[in-house]
Amino acid sequence: MTIPIGLTHRAKTPPSTRLEFYDTIVVGGGQAGLAAGHHLAQKDIDFLILDGNDRIGDSWRNRWDSLQLFTPARYSGLPGLPFPGRPLDLPNKNQVGDYLERYAEHFDLPVRSGTRVTHLAMDGDRFVLHTAGVTYQANSVIVATGPFQKPRVPAIASQLPRAVQQFHSSDYQNPLHLPPGDVLVVGVGNSGAQIAMELAKSRQVWLAGRESGHLRRRLLGRDLYDWIWPIFTRFDADTMIGRRMKRRTRATDPLIGIAPSDIVRSGVTRVGRLTEVRDGQPFCEDRAIDPAVVIWCTGFTADYGWIDLPVFGDDGYPRHDRGVVAEAPGLYFLGLRFLHRRTSALIGGVGADAAYVAEVILKS
């Protein structure tokens, strides 16, 4: 049931549940939540960060083993603490996780790990957040759970026979964790290309989907991001160029540093879109494929079912202006794709949005 803003939801707190109050609660201890924490601390705002993972950075550590950032270390630091290492190195997933953990320690941010928020609603003029064992109340809430929440798997997956084992990219770790046999990777984004090329070293792999374009890693002797980062950070959603870039983020991102020829040379067989399953066999356009394993590199969808407030559009995403939700004063979002800039969901770009939201909270 949706609870209209302004009405009181008198949910009874179980006798064994402890009640705590903070001026601001940040939900999510990834890069967006930590950036928010940094700016809230700078403004001496009373706050607490709640994170469902057992350890800060686990959202990165739990991804596939060979994952690397597409942005160099130079553009992958949070406010006040540059990412360590050589500026043009591409950090791996464990380095990112460890950096986030060090960041929280460096700034002594109050993060309560292993604390998953299961329900957010209003009780009078305060927000109420339920977790296992503790109920929190706050004047302001920043939802910083990021854009990668619920794995998206197309409906056609249900038509595949049980003999074909299926995984989403969020479940993939490395080739040794997969059952034996040939693999169909669905989705020609950066994740799909990386995983397909890794698997092709040891087995037959098909990569299905439309070409998403690609960008070279280096251009005129400089790293790609030396050219595009100033553009991404200059043009926001209030500019014509920024609005055009925002519309393009709805499509699959181009491959970064991976050309179609690189995929073919790695031994991957490129096929068209997965269009149907006929007699238990997947068809990629007109080509029949016989995989033992299918990996869905088909992205993620929003999962805000735990937020019991009428602030979402028909697409499931929150209605906001630069992360500020007018329909629920005191509610904010951070870390979404193009929340205000092309870099809003990136480690090196979320800080600007976090600074803006913290300033709004200070003045409210």
Number of domains: 2
**CATH C-level of the largest domain:** Alpha Beta
Order of helices and strands: EHEHHEEEEEEEHEEEEHHEHEEEEEEEH
Q: In terms of per-residue confidence, which ranges show pLDDT below 50 for 5 or more consecutive residues?
A: 1-13
Folded structure, characterized:
There is one protein chain. This protein has 364 residues and is an alpha/beta fold. The protein has 2 domains: 18-149 and 302-363, FAD/NAD(P)-binding domain (3-Layer(bba) Sandwich); 152-212 and 252-296, FAD/NAD(P)-binding domain (3-Layer(bba) Sandwich), CATH 3.50.50. The chain is 22% helix and 22% strand. The strands form 6 sheets. Strands 1, 2, 3, 4, 5, 6 and 21 form a 7-stranded mixed beta sheet that branches. A hairpin with a 2-residue loop joins strand 12 (218-219) and strand 13 (222-223). It is globular. The chain starts with 17 loop residues before the first strand and ends with a helix.
List the helices and strands and how they pair.
Layout: E1 18-27, H1 31-42, E2 47-50, H2 58-61, H3 93-106, E3 111-112, E4 119-123, E5 126-130, E6 134-143, E7 150-151, E8 165-168, E9 183-186, H4 190-199, E10 205-208, E11 214-215, E12 218-219, E13 222-223, H5 224-234, H6 240-248, E14 255-256, H7 260-265, E15 269-271, E16 274-278, E17 281-284, E18 287-288, E19 293-296, E20 300-301, E21 331-333, H8 350-363
Helix pairs in contact: 1-8
Key words describing this protein structure:
single chain, alpha/beta, FAD/NAD(P)-binding domain, 2 domains, seven-stranded mixed sheet, five-stranded parallel sheet, globular, disordered N terminus
